[in-house]
């Protein structure tokens, strides 16, 4: 493990593997809507905040981009990270069309690793790939083969990597939607291959988008529930003393209200400059009723508040 990674672990800035190398400190300000997109991962590197979303630029869901900000208020789209055409193992296999979504960026070994989903599930299995990147803004080069392939009722979607602050172990969580099944693997040190699958519980109300972070010795597994195009989409969480459970269900923290619908598919970040925790998520704006909704979702970053007992307080959307 590199010294930069160890320093981040000591800071406990770990949410979906946050050993991202820090430059100058950044100071966060509360900021509602950021930009159009979905499924955000949020990180800090080189003195800036980074968001890695789905469907946030030219090429739609056939390309992945990085977005960056110095204050969590003003965001700019950075360079293209990866495009579908650059992934050789996605062949003409009978699927009408393939898509890239739900990226997760991780720093380790002096490099950056971009995990992503490839779908749809039918008529071919969904898959999870990983690419190695030179910087948090890319460019990224695919590993040359899928890391995980779905099938037998399991959808290989929504990868999220978590580094355990106790021993530096790196775990990959994935799965959900139709099968609504969570799975977990230990990654090898190269981060582009699997060591072994780990037993893990699928928590109550789980649909997709699992995310793990640790705070004061408690492991928080948060995830999306419901249908992504409907008002049922929401974020729930459970806690454990272990990264694999058993999980104690704690309830919902983000739900639809009169102004905003379907909040979900989130990521968390402890800001090393302020010590505050934040959640990045997407939602539908300007919609009425229960759905299905159409158009563009928007990405939002808001603070997380913990109660005296460590419970995450429900988040009022702004």
UniProtKB/TrEMBL annotation:
Pfam families linked to this entry: Glyco_hydro_43
Residues marked Important for catalytic activity, responsible for pKa modulation of the active site Glu and correct orientation of both the proton donor and substrate (site): 158
GO terms, molecular function: hydrolase activity, hydrolyzing O-glycosyl compounds
Alphabetized SUPFAM superfamilies for the sequence: Arabinanase/levansucrase/invertase (SSF75005)
Active site: 39, 208
Keywords carried by this UniProt record: Carbohydrate metabolism, Glycosidase, Hydrolase, Polysaccharide degradation, Signal, Xylan degradation
Coiled-coil residue windows: none
Gene3D superfamilies per UniProt: Glycosyl hydrolase domain, family 43
Signal peptide coordinates: 1-30
CDD domains: GH43_bXyl-like (cd09004)
GO annotation terms (biological process): xylan catabolic process
Keyword Signal: yes
InterPro entries: Glyco_hydro_43 (IPR006710), Glyco_hydro_beta-prop_sf (IPR023296), Glycosyl_Hydrlase_43_Enz (IPR052176)
Family, as annotated: Belongs to the glycosyl hydrolase 43 family.
The name this protein goes by in its record: Family 43 glycosylhydrolase
């Amino acid at each position: 493990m590199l010294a930069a990674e160890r320093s981040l672990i000591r800071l406990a800035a770990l949410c979906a593997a946050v050993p991202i190398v820090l430059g100058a400190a950044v100071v966060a300000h509360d900021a509602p809507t950021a930009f159009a997109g979905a499924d955000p991962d949020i990180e800090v590197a080189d003195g800036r905040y980074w968001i890695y979303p789905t469907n946030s630029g030219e090429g739609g869901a056939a390309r992945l981009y990085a977005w960056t900000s110095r204050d969590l208020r003003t965001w700019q789209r950075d360079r293209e990270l990866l495009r579908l055409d650059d992934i050789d193992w996605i062949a003409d296999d009978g699927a009408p069309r393939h898509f890239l979504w739900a990226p997760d960026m991780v720093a380790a070994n002096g490099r950056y690793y971009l995990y992503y989903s490839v779908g749809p599930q039918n008529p071919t299995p969904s898959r999870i790939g990983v690419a190695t990147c030179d910087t948090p803004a890319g460019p990224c080069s695919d590993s040359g083969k899928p890391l995980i392939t779905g099938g037998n009722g399991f959808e290989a979607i929504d990868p999220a990597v978590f580094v355990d602050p106790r021993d530096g172990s790196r775990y990959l969580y994935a799965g959900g939607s139709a099968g609504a099944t969570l799975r977990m693997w230990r990654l090898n040190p190269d981060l582009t291959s699997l060591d072994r699958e780990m037993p893990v519980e699928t928590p109550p109300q789980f649909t997709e988008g699992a995310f793990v972070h640790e705070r004061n010795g408690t492991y928080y597994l948060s995830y999306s529930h419901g249908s992504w195009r409907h008002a049922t989409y929401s974020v729930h969480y459970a806690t454990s003393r272990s990264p694999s459970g058993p999980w104690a269900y704690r309830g919902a923290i983000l739900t639809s209200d009169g102004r905003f619908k379907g909040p979900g598919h989130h990521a968390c970040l402890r800001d090393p400059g302020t010590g505050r925790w934040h959640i990045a998520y997407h939602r539908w704006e300007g919609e009425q009723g229960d759905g299905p909704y159409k158009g563009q979702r928007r990405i939002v970053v808001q603070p997380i508040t913990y109660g005296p007992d460590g419970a995450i307080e429900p988040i009022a959307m702004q």
